[in-house]
UniProtKB/TrEMBL annotation:
It comes from Fibrisoma montanum. This is Lytic transglycosylase domain-containing protein. SUPFAM superfamilies: Lysozyme-like. The lineage of its organism: Bacteria, Pseudomonadati, Bacteroidota, Cytophagia, Cytophagales. CDD domains: MltD-like. It holds the Pfam family SLT. Transmembrane segments: none annotated. Belongs to the transglycosylase Slt family.
Amino acid sequence: MNWLACLSMATGLVVSNSFPATCEPLNCSYETLYASKSTGLLRVDPVTPVALPPVYFCGESVPLHEEKVARHLVKALVSNSAHQQLLYQIRQRAATFFPVIEPILAQHNVPLDFKYLPLVESALRGYAVSPSGAAGYWQFMPATARELGLRVGGGHDERRDLVKSTEAACRYLNYLYSRLGSWTLAAAAYNNGLGALLGNIRRQQQRDYYYLRLSAETGKYLYRILAFKELFSNHHSYKGLISDRVLASLSRPVSPESDAAGEDILLPERFVDEAVEGAVRSGSRESGVVEEPADIPLPNAADVFRGGIKARLAQAAGLQRGQVWVFHLTRDGMTDGKAVEAGDILYATVEDVDSKTGKVFLRADRLYSAGEKQTYSLALAAVDASTGRIGIKLTDVDQIKAGWILTWKVL
């Protein structure tokens, strides 16, 4: 029996009339894709074939003529639609948050399909935290969040701010796209890390996500995003694959959650644990994930921040969080579209002291113009001048004295 006939029997799918001759036969013992019929939540009839519609991600066609690709998408659709009431609740949450996310994506020229990414990352829960410390709607680690201009520490965590974290995600996604040239690969790198993905591309001499051999988590990642997109925007095309009960629920109008901004009381933890299958990234990846090669640069401040000024330390305080240090600008320049002059004063706060990375993070929120005799609000971060990364090494801080000059980047 050829693999197409077996696929039709196992899943009830008809994916195409023509296929590459190189496709391997489907293993007929593949686990059943449909949920128990007693649940009534999802049905894949082994007798009635169901055609998969064309599917696209950011304008890139998904190769559903490939048996493995079609099977992964079906499994993701099954998983994401298995909890009918919880799926309705996350649609409610999306109705609240998508109108905020979409204009930000458009402003940064990021395809709108990425609005489904935080559904996979956090189920759109601002207070979602992974065991490794990734947090917020877009699940940033603390160091990555700071690199992208978010305040983390000192009683503030802007990873939980929908607007600011979405803007940071756009900066990061644009960076990944500039390195990879594909939004599909950018999504994979968001999950697996740029260095690990480039390592796989280099070793396998393959730049197509659907044909790369990746870790189990990253290999399923894009399909989870696609499943949410298809369920939310094209569910009628899956009649026969998805039960009438689930289709009726997906067709049911939703109104934005009135208390969504107040956080996560409608979505229990089991939604993340069971329905999204560990969508909130844990720190433990499957074995075989390649570590970041040292020769592959990570995004740094030069890539995601604009502008830069230098300021000389005039008055230092302690290294405790909240301590204020005073710096004087050393030369004229521009910051965030405003002209600044030598002698202007920065009031910088110790935002965090990270013993794990051996860095202190300084953030300036105010600038006093000596010429105009006026204080302006702005957001600057001290960066390592040699790398452009936010944060100053503690070994350098030990040598602090008047005259110490730091480079500052606009967030």
